[in-house]
Amino acid sequence: MMRTALAAAVTLAALAMGSAAFAQDALIGDWRTAPDDNGNTGLIRVTQCGTSLCGTLVEAYGPSGSQIESENIGRQIIWDTNPTTTAGEYQGQIYSPDRDATYNSRLYLSGDSIEVCGRRFGIERCSGNWTRVQ
Questions:
Q1: The pLDDT of residue 10 is above 50
Q2: Structural domain boundaries of the chain?
């Protein structure tokens, strides 16, 4: 009986770890940001960084949609990002180049879209949706 309980516990732990890994994998890829306060967007590449996810700005675009130079290319925009116990939700840190500020982030993944929210000084602001780039 003890052996059966131990086997069940090990199986549940393995399933939980597997589903957390799957949840993290769902965010990996390239994402086009919503326009910032200046109308600029970016291409964020989300990858595994140790035990968490991080995302780096790899391209920047002006309000017209044409590619522009940016001092933030190569900068981590999200880091220390991990799935929560709520399906499709991630928490971590996010940097907003247009505001030169770092926020506690909540990302809500739904299909090929991420609603991006940041919290600073107790105020949460959602800045729009990022779209997966195929």
A1: no
A2: 2-133
